[in-house]
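Notes to self after the Tuesday call (sharing in case useful).
The group wants a holo model before anyone commits to mutagenesis around the pocket. I volunteered. Ligand is zinc ion. Logging inputs and output together so the record is complete.
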Amino acid sequence: MLGPNKTGFIEKPDPKVGPRDALVKPLAVAPCTSDIHTVFEDAIGPREDMILGHEACGEIVEVGSEVQDFKVGDRVLVPAITPDWSKVESQAGYAVHSGGMLAGWKFSNIKDGVFATRFHVNDADGNLALLPKEIDPAVATMLSDMIPTGLHASELAGVEFGDTVAVIGIGPVGLMAVRGAVLHGAGRLIAVGSNDRPITFEVAKKYGATDLVDYHAGDLADQILKLTDGKGVDKVLIAGGDAAHTFDQAMRILKPGGAIGNVNYLNGHDDVVFNAANWGVGMSHKTLHGGLMPGGRLRMEKLASLVVNGRIDPSLMITQRFEGFEHIADTVELMHKKPADVIKPVVIC
Ligand code: NDP
Ligand code: ZN
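Result:
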């Protein structure tokens, strides 16, 4: 990111490695819709000459003197969120906010990201995980952000066995929210996307969606209420839409006592709006949760186990594969324009 609305390649020296850090060269990387919000929508404020990207796996080229469990040459999974594990926020259970709100999100936010020939990882022992030999590097990039974020949606909402769940938005994050809710025991699962990107509906079905709703075909809340005989749903997972309408639609379709799990990255200039009546004039026991994906090594190891053991097949989401570092620019362009055949492009470096 050269500046707002501007991307290109820049030269920078290798980052310095502190005693607990590592330097990693990427094996594969993928662009995120969040990179697009940052560059083209001013979602977190302007950035200049900042290297983008937070989805990668790689090979370690240098480790700090205090790193215990990783060495040069290890192939590693890299989470998008790399907390400082010794901060008090981490001890309070919110490591993603270690050092301040969202400060665990370092790559392509408050420091250079992974679209670099070498990138810096803080707290290597706390944040890296060994790349299992069964997982192909292109597939491993889905473990940085798409799997942890999508699965977090149903953790936030507390999906339980037999719940009827609506997932609003079925890009790669929403598709992983679908899969996560199914793994958490959802009964009926209503996926909201659009026929403009039919491939997302196809993959949502493979991940376990039972009903598909096109948000262009009429108000999505009306459609879901009709599908459920006016009863609505137990949980809503939000991975798309906007601040002005989507939360109101979600409140409207929730049963009393239901919960929303939002992982959509909203624009900091907007207000989240929902009608008080849809929230039971303040007394519905409907709750709204939103969260950044948890990062760190243990989380990476556990999510990798879901892939190794066939519970999640991330390869269904990889729609384009490029070879060569220079193609990173093409994938950012694809993510920006989102042609109908794109879910997630990947670059093998
Ligand atoms: P995509 O753009 O690929 O997917 C968005 C989905 O929402 C699509 O299915 C889209 O349909 C649908 N959609 C768009 N507008 C509406 C609407 N008005 N009502 C209902 N559905 C709508 O994004 P990603 O899956 O890549 O990412 C989703 C979000 O998650 C992004 O905001 C991203 O920045 C964020 N994110 C959050 C993270 C976290 O830690 N919390 C981490 C990573 C990403 P269609 O394409 O057909 O228009
Ligand atoms: Zn992301």
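Two things stood out.
The mean pLDDT is 97.
The pocket of zinc ion (ligand 2) is lined by residues 32, 34, 54, 80, 145 (CB under 6 Å).
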